[in-house]
Amino acid sequence: MLCQFAFKNFKSYKNETTLDFQAATLPEFKDTLITNEIASDLLPVSAIYGPNGGGKSNLLMALSCVISTIVNPVNELEKNHTFPIIQQNVNTTPFAFDTISSDEPTEFRLFFRVGNNEYCYYIAILKDEVVSEDLFRKAVTSKKSATIFERENGKITLGYSINKKSINTDVNPKMPYISFLAINYNIPEIKEAMSWFEGCIIRNYANPTVEYQIMLYNDSIGKNHMLHALNDMDIDITDYRYDSDSHQLYVKRLVDNKEYELPYMEESEGTRKLISALPVILLALRDGRLLIIDELDAKLHPKLLRYVISLFKNKDINRNGAQLLFTSHDMSTLKNTVFRRDEIWFACENDAHESEIYSLHELRNEDGERIKNTASYDKQYLEGRYGADPYLRNMLGGAFE
After folding, report:
1. Cα(239)–Cα(313) distance, rounded to whole angstroms?
2. Which domain covers residue 85, as residue numbers?
3. Fewest C-beta atoms under 10 Å: which of 22, 70, 312, 338?
4. Residue 234 counted as domain residue
5. pLDDT digits (tens, 9 = 90+) for 106-164
6. Domain for residue 228, yes or no?
7. Cα(306)–Cα(297) distance, rounded to whole angstroms?
8. How crowded is residue 48: how many other Cβ atoms within 10 Å of its Cβ?
């Protein structure tokens, strides 16, 4: 489970930016949080809103970048334990609108939880080479972290738990050391940390080719779960089959007690998206994975978008701590009946073309008070009260002065 993600000098983000999945102390939707008797509560959902060009997609790309950077070398050598579902590789691209950022590293830091352990992973990359990298671990009940390894300017120092003569510390500067260890050694701490990275699912529905990338269930249980979810959304598909000769997917419907079969490509764009997206959504829920989706609302009816969000916020369905991070323009879901205030984030650019993010929970109204959970979030957002205009300076208490 993702606890926190911070990064700097990536695409439109120049300064350090932090996305927090740790739940704030709020009265609303307490029963939807990912809870642990011995650890802090985490959010099941975070939604990123904002204008075009504000940095929503770049935020998700930053997270995709660090995940793919770590997972791809392991996957290419078939040393992975979980098959990664990552749509595209993302390069480390520094901030472009100044003269110094291109000569400074792009930095990523993640705090994530696996079982009762919490990991902190940091990596800094400059011109495709790793200049700094650290991995720490602690029990969720502990305040003190143990070093697994530290890497600085080519020198690698091993922590006590893996400090053995047989472990090589001479690694290609372009290779993350965590990936190197996962490829060459069977180290429990590395295996556990890599299991989280490999489990992350990344999809971009702004790209129409995603509708052709369909993960089908071969087992009857998985297929039934998918069909049940489609029927819950009033998509009355009774079955589907893949024809290996024609390389086509067919969907089946029952009309007047007679079964009809149509090619997948003859379905509406919204139905095609659901058929494409539901398998990865259900997989994330089943295994407790992080699901990262750009433009989740594209081609979806608002009621269907709400349904998808509700799956992650329903603890009877989301039993293993799955999390959903997505971007959206859909105002009909920007409501206090759908989200907690700390689950809503906004991305915008300032006058220097630097992207910044902030949560609704951070904002202040004109009286200096926090936005209430009874407010009309969608209405106030469309009025510009949450957006990149001068009023924002007052709401954030002059933070941009």
Report:
1. 27
2. 2-200+325-395
3. 22
4. no
5. 999 999 999 999 999 999 999 999 999 999 999 998 889 999 999 999 899 999 989 88
6. no
7. 9
8. 21
CB within 8 Å of 85: residues ≥ 6 apart: 201, 202, 203, 215, 280, 283
Q: Is 235 domain-assigned?
A: no
249 located within any domain: no
- Residue the block writes with tokens 């109204």: 365
- Count of domains observed in the chain: 1
